[in-house]
Hints:
The complex is a heterodimer of chains A (159) and B (155).
Chain A: H1 3-21, E1 26-27, E2 32-33, E3 38-39, E4 43-50, E5 54-61, H2 63-74, H3 84-108, E6 114-129, E7 134-142, E8 145-153
Antiparallel strand pairs in A: 1-7, 2-7, 3-6, 4-5, 4-6, 5-8, 7-8
Helix pairs in contact in A: 1-3
Chain B: H1 7-19, E1 25-32, E2 37-38, E3 42-50, E4 54-60, H2 62-72, H3 83-104, E5 113-115, E6 119-129, E7 136-142, E8 145-153
Antiparallel strand pairs in B: 1-7, 2-6, 3-4, 3-5, 3-6, 4-8, 7-8
Helix pairs in contact in B: 1-3, 2-3
Pfam family, one (chain A): CheX
Protein name (chain A): Chemotaxis protein CheX
Domain Chemotaxis phosphatase CheX-like (chain A): 43-136
Amino acid sequence: MNPQLTSPFLESAKNMINQMASVQIQESDSFQEQQDDIASYGVSALVTFAGVLKGRLLLDLEPSLAKEIVQQVMGETYDDMKDSTFMGMMGELSNIIGGDALTFLNNEQSYNLRLASPAVFIGKEMIISIPKIQSATIHCTSRHGNMRINVAFEKGGVA
Amino acid sequence: MDVQYITPFLDSVKSILQQFGIQNVTRGTIKKKETMSVDKDIISIVGLVGDVKGNVSYAFSEATAKNIISSMMMGMPVEQLDGMARSAMSEFANMITGTAIGSLSSLEAVNEVMPSPPSIIYGKDIFMIISPVETLAIELETDAGKIEVNIGLEM
Lengths: 159, 155
């Protein structure tokens, strides 16, 4: 997939998580084509968008990293990830990252992309698939756990 | 959330299922979702962008999903939820949402709505939130099994 479409999401994720929660995220490779379904780390926040192109941003985090981010932002510890504030915060995080990346993309190219509402999923042995649509994943590490960022664009991002 | 935004989704589930030969679709309880738990194995979720913004998800048990996919594919038996089956699930969500958007567009307040690509999530003990505002959960009883439609619109 075109790196110009995927890299803004990585940059926004790194910047926003650092600004909001002072957690440093480091990518461990480059965006790779996602061939199979994604086996979730445990906490998944997804937000879809549409405009000239259509697509989806998926943030998949290990519970330890998700808890650290929420704790840093809210100033409170949440042991129960099913707490509505916890899940709402994860949704807001994906909204902020997605919004920031889309603003960049819209300014660079007139894609006119707009976000739908974020959705957050927490569960055991979750598998996430986006059938028939090309997507690319980048793995990231931090002191508090791993995360992956998956960006999907319909038709591989060709308008 | 106004009822005029809800009925198009329920009507389109019914009409799409009937096109596949699943005739009996009855509306069960409608409730504002208080807990975020989903007791189904498979969730198909579609986003909406434009004058109607939010997410709509359709949740099924594995058996129900297999029944629906089988009727979509002219009665071909579905042994497992492989790539083909998942593709059919996302197409099912696309068809329902597309039909619903058609009826939503006839509302005066709605000029433009666009669906975004469906995602499929499956697993156990899934908790989800699909809207920062409120979510309505509607149980539908069908010949293929129960379908839970969750509608979370920011309006």
